[in-house]
Amino acid sequence: MASPSIALKGGSSDSIGDHAKFGVVTVSDRASQGIYADESGPAIIQFFHEAINSSFEVVYKVIPDEKPLIEATLKQLCDIDGCCFVVTTGGTGPAPRDVTPDATEAVCSRIIPGYGEQMRAISLRYVPTAVLSRQTAGIRGKSLILNLPGKPKAIRETIDEVFVSIPACIHYLEGPYIETNNEVDPKRGQGIILGAEATLKDGVKGALTYDVHKRTGAASMTLDKSFDNGSNLQLKAIYKQAGDMFILEETWKLDANNKLGGAYNFNTEEAAFSYTYTKNDWAATGKYNFQKDTTILQVEKKEGKNTYMVQYAPKDGATSLVWTAKPFKAILKGNMGKGGVSADSAVFAVTHEFDL
User: Fold this and answer.
1) DSSP letter assigned to residue 18
2) What does 209-271 look like in DSSP terms, one character per residue?
3) Are 286 and 300 members of one domain?
4) pLDDT digit string (tens) for 88-111?
5) Contact 41, 78 (CB under 8 A)
6) Does a cis peptide bond (omega within 30 degrees of 0) precede residue 327?
7) What domain range is 49 assigned to?
8) Would you say the C-alpha torsion 299, 303, 304, 306 has a positive or negative sign?
9) Which ranges of the chain have pLDDT less than 70?
10) Average model confidence (pLDDT) for the chain?
11) Domain boundary among 292, 310, 331
12) pLDDT tens track for 233-257
């Protein structure tokens, strides 16, 4: 059973990706008996939280090294629970009770040997005994099943590289579109985008875009009107094919320093309001989501090619520090509690944008 500290839901409903369900199965005699706490399954779930932008949920199970039970669990997750991606950890070695690959092959209609080959090649960089691993992957219906190593360190060493191709495989199996972070796959989202834009009349513009890489389209209609007192009003209606989403946005620039913004999502019935004050190179913004009752406070400072930004959410204490000097970006995230930023929640990442 999942530990209360493990978040089984993640991602963002604001992402263009679809909602997905994943299965995580720890195969271990001792962990299933409670002799020690499972650390491998939670390590995989933590990776999902770090790697995936779109919303997801996880069905998490800890079971013993029994081949019939492993087979039944995989069938349940794929056929009944509707998981598009099922990950197992443990039981992939040559020992008599290491039967996870055997159970995987028994329930799959097709095997994808490339995943096992890639994981063994990765692990051989660290330990020579990786050649003994029998990890494999296969397809059951519209679900992908993948065997990972049993130790958290080995899981992290392999999943970082293997996961890059997982969303594409799920897509080919007619599963949900999974949007990942650029830190996971820098090339993801840099495909060809086709578009057309037309100016109608009275400040109204229409636009159509289609992302060949993500196979999603969007349409928008924008009204941009300036008034005699110097203020400017912009209304935008947006339709996104991904998620069949319709959004109405409003931006009202009152003067050189003050700007009001608002948005309403007709699908989720979420309404948001923002206020931005700018002065010289500084910008302060407050955003409020009426449905979620959440507030985000943001301060941004531009200095030459450098941009510094601090974001803070008072409700849960989520804090982000971002420095951008293109093509580099550094991000530090954590939860600000009474004792400061928790080390357990801190995430640091540095990215580099490439022009391909």
Assistant:
1) P
2) EEETTTTEEEEEEEEEEE-TTS-EEEEEEEEETTTTEEEEEEEEE-SSSEEEEEEEETTTTEE
3) no
4) 999 999 999 999 999 999 999 999
5) no
6) yes
7) 9-172
8) negative
9) 1-7, 11-17, 182-193, 211-216, 242-244, 326-327, 334-356
10) 83
11) 292
12) 888 888 877 666 788 888 888 887 8
